[in-house]
Specification:
By secondary structure, this protein is an alpha+beta fold. The chain folds into four domains: about 100 residues, no CATH class; about 100 residues, Beta-Lactamase (2-Layer Sandwich), CATH 3.30.450; about 80 residues, Orthogonal Bundle (Helix Hairpins); about 160 residues, 2-Layer Sandwich (Heat Shock Protein 90). The chain contains 13 helices and twelve strands. It is elongated.
Length: about 500
């Protein structure tokens, strides 16, 4: 219990955070991430990037010189590399004799090396596989080559890169390149000041822009929310503002459509309640009235009066059962028990229920079938479909009181039609005949058979079976309700027996 209460409190707390502040927080967080990345890359990693670029330059320069070692343009290449990249260059032989040298740095190391040191550099390069790199500090002036990194950012790092190039004549030439990596401490300090100002300005601008953006985005949603609360109160004439962004406009249009449909549903619900009340009240009134007469008046306890009470009770039971059936069908809780069965025999068996109606009321109910047909479906529910269609035809039959049930085989499909010669239905009203308690003349009329829910039950059972169905009608031409089913093999009769 305590946990549920805590969970509700947390959920309420989450609901209190408006979309305005969510958008504001997201935008500010985005700006904060951008500024953080600027600080990391411009301040924290500037020295690393600078060193990587310098090392990359010296490697590319070494390759250019090596590729042009036999070229007539070697001198030009060496000068361009030295001046453009600020790199000192020395070319020497195996014994340390200098062939070519360019000095462009104030503290160049390689030009202070003796022939012995140059020859030693050649040997170290050979031992290292043809290339060698040294990193040292100007203030340390190590006398030997070594691999390593400097930890003091205030000292100028010197990088020496060597490579052995072979000429076309087979002579090995040692190429030595030397460049310095100046400390970026002062640059970092300058950037810190600049970024500090940029950060302050960006935060102020971000807050202002976030407020404006959040308000602009949340305002139409807030309006829609207010309108939705009005709709929730049952005021279906509310109008949702469709201005603003496309998605919000689509939402507003959808809600406007939903409001109109809810208005129709409410009207239908009121009509439905009125119809149900009428249909329930009529048999109850009849039962109560005849029972009181039989109680209070002598000699009124007749079989005829008892039969009226029984008929009205049965009608009341049918109404309740139909209401339960349609509720289950529309809720999707009904399960189909599909199996092969003889559709033709099933129709004949249903029509035997109308013997009394034919004898007493003078109806003519005719069944036309070209042959026995087997189908696979839920037989009980399909019998309910046919029964309801026949009841509807009887209720709206013409003066001739004739109803025709026709079974027609079409290739591998059977079509069942229920026809009457009544007043018919206008074309624009045909889609509504499947609705609960829909009445063409809008004047409630107690059917001689049925509850007013039959066609709605038919529609739901048809959709549950995924069958084609429909109605053809015109004023003065009667109505033709039909459905189609897939025919199965005739040996299905063996399964029945």
């Amino acid at each position: 219990m305590k946990w549920n209460n805590l969970l509700r409190k947390k959920q309420k707390g989450k609901e209190k955070v408006s979309i305005f502040w969510k958008i504001f927080a997201i935008f500010v967080a985005f700006i904060a991430v951008i500024l953080s990345l600027l600080w990391v890359f411009q301040i924290g990693m500037l020295n690393t990037f600078y060193r990587s670029i310098k090392i990359h330059d010296i490697e590319n320069s070494l390759k250019d010189i090596s590729d042009n070692i036999d070229s007539d343009k070697l001198s030009t290449v060496l000068k361009n590399v030295a001046n453009d990249k600020q790199i000192c260059i020395t070319l020497c032989t195996q014994d340390g004799s200098v062939i070519y040298a360019i000095d462009v740095l104030p503290n160049c190391i390689i030009h202070e090396l003796s022939s012995y040191r140059l020859a030693r550099a050649y040997e170290l390069t050979v031992q290292n596989g043809g290339t060698f790199i040294e990193r040292t500090m100007f203030n340390e002036r190590k006398s030997q080559f070594f691999l390593g990194e400097t930890d003091d950012p205030n000292q100028i790092e010197s990088v020496i890169y060597t490579k052995i190039a072979t000429t076309k004549s087979g002579e090995n030439i040692l190429i030595l390149l030397n460049t310095s990596i100046s400390p970026v401490v002062s640059t970092v300090q300058t950037l810190k000041v600049q970024l500090l100002w940029i950060t302050v300005i960006m935060i102020v601008l971000a807050v202002i822009m976030a407020l404006l953006l959040a308000k602009n985005l949340s305002s139409p949603i807030v309006k829609i929310n207010k309108s939705a609360k009005v709709l929730a109160q049952g005021k279906y004439d509310v109008d949702f503002d469709a201005s603003g962004y496309r998605e919000i406009a689509e939402l507003a249009n959808t809600l406007n459509y939903a409001a109109k449909e809810l208005s129709k549903v409410e009207a239908l619900q009121r009509e439905l309640i009125a119809n149900i009340s009428h249909d329930l009240r009529t048999p109850l009134t009849m039962i109560t009235g005849y029972a009181e007469v039989m109680r209070d008046i002598p000699n009124e306890n007749t079989p005829e009066n008892v039969q009226i009470i029984i008929d009205e009770a049965n009608r009341l039971t049918s109404l309740v059962n139909d209401m339960l059936d349609i509720s289950k069908l529309q809720a999707g809780v009904q399960v189909l028990n599909e199996a092969p069965y003889n559709l033709t025999k099933s129709i004949r068996r249903i029509l035997t229920r109308y013997t009394k109606l034919i004898e007493q009321e003078g109806y003519h109910i005719r069944f036309e079938a070209d042959r026995e047909v087997f189908v696979k479906a839920d037989e009980i529910k399909m019998e309910q479909v046919i029964y309801n269609l026949v009841n509807n035809a009887v209720n709206y039959a013409g003066a001739d009181k004739e109803v025709v049930i026709r079974q027609t085989v079409l290739a591998d499909t059977v079509k069942v039609e229920v026809l009457d010669h009544g007043d018919g239905i206008a074309e624009d009203l045909l889609p509504y005949v499947w609705d609960r308690y829909y009445k063409i003349d809008k004047a409630h009329k107690q059917a001689s058979i049925g509850t007013g829910l039959g066609l709605s039950i038919v529609k739901n059972i048809m959709e549950l079976h995924h069958l084609r169905f429909g109605v053809n009608s015109a004023p003065g031409m009667g109505s033709n309700f039909w459905f189609e089913m897939k025919i199965v093999e005739d040996n299905a009769e063996k399964n029945e027996n």
